[in-house]
């Protein structure tokens, strides 16, 4: 798939230096985290397995039950109001959900028809999914950045790891290699990388039997190519340009190539037993989050 865009003068966005992009992202993160939390709070009907049990993450305090060992008492909490309390930890199963969010240069695109850039929408969706799934009793991590956690601070953990990761902004494919057999993957990307490369990566990740879900983020202009007249094709990742005399004559071929590219990704997901969801950035983020969260829950028998 040719990773080019037709951009008007006000939309042309050359690739930024990695440091500048990281600083810009860090400045936007507080707003994105708040939006992700709002989206997560709007998701209903995802029933989880949250319960106490052996684990590393604090869950709640509860009153001591007669017959329990005194070694379980949290004396500092109990001293505050004269009652005996036990510090419970979350139950952590062997299952984990591994998130990967594409932060390559093409994800920075936003047309005048979009509600947000692709990277901002991907981060909101990824953070909202992480919070929703942790609230449902799952452990979530970011491939190559964090371990899988069942922490109530999962969004902050992911955000800090992403800001600190300068190399990840150059990668348009998730890390290779098979996932653990009982794991799930959620890949959030625009898919604008050669279809065979993404298909091979999906096949490799699923080779152990791991389940997965691909969330394709697309700008509405990328879907329709509504241009005519003279135009300039500009590659956001390589900085290359190509002037064409009549963009309208390219439209039908572009849409055919895009459909073939998507078919290749869809077929790779089908062979791996994974799901594929297409989300346009002129639609609310909650639509994508609800669908993917529902798919994950259904695959795990949570609903």
Walk me through the structure.
The structure is a single chain. This protein has 8 helices and 10 strands. It is α/β, with parallel strands linked by helices and 303 residues long. It has 2 domains: 5-50 and 92-299, Rossmann fold; 58-89, no CATH class. A 5-stranded parallel β-sheet has the order 5-4-6-7-10, with helices on both faces. Strands 1-8-9 form a 3-stranded antiparallel β-sheet, with no helix packed on it. Strands 2-3 form a two-stranded antiparallel ribbon. The protein is elongated. It starts with a strand and ends with a helix. Mean pLDDT is 83; it is low at 1-15.
Task: Describe the structure in brief.
With 303 residues, this protein is α/β, with parallel strands linked by helices. It has eight helices and ten strands.
List strands and helices in order, with pairings.
Layout: E1 5-6, H1 18-41, E2 58-63, H2 75-78, E3 85-89, E4 97-101, H3 118-135, E5 140-142, H4 154-164, E6 184-189, H5 195-206, E7 211-218, H6 220-224, E8 231-234, E9 241-244, H7 248-272, E10 275-280, H8 285-299
Parallel strand pairs: 4-5, 4-6, 6-7, 7-10
Antiparallel strand pairs: 1-8, 2-3, 8-9
Helix pairs in contact: 1-3, 1-4, 3-4, 3-8, 5-7
């Amino acid at each position: 798939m040719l990773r080019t865009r037709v951009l008007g003068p006000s939309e042309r966005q050359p690739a930024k230096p990695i440091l500048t992009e990281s600083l810009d992202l860090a400045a936007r993160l507080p707003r994105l985290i708040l939006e992700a939390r709002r989206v997560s709070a709007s998701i209903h009907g995802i029933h989880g397995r949250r319960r106490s049990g052996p684990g590393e993450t604090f869950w709640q305090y509860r009153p001591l039950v007669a017959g329990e060992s005194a070694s379980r008492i949290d004396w500092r909490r109990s001293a505050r109001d004269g009652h005996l309390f036990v510090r419970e930890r979350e139950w952590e199963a062997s299952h984990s959900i591994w998130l990967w969010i594409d932060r390559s240069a093409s994800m920075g695109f936003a047309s005048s028809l979009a509600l947000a850039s692709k990277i901002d929408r991907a981060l909101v969706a990824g953070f909202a999914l992480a919070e929703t799934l942790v609230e449902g009793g799952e452990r979530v991590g970011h491939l190559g950045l964090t371990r899988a956690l069942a922490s109530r601070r999962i969004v902050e953990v992911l955000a800090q790891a992403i800001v600190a990761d300068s190399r990840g902004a150059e990668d348009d494919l998730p890390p290779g290699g098979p996932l653990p057999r009982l794991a799930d993957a959620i890949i959030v990307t625009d898919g604008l990388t050669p279809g065979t490369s993404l298909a091979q990566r999906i096949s490799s990740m699923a080779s152990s039997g791991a389940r997965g879900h691909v969330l394709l983020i697309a700008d509405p202009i990328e879907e329709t190519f509504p241009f005519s007249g003279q135009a300039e094709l500009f590659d956001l990742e390589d900085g290359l340009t190509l002037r064409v005399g009549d963009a309208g004559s390219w439209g039908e071929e572009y849409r055919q190539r895009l459909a073939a590219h998507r078919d290749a990704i869809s077929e790779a997901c089908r062979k791996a037993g994974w799901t594929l969801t297409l989300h346009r950035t002129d639609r609310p983020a909650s639509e994508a989050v609800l669908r993917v969260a529902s798919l994950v829950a259904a695959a795990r028998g949570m609903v």
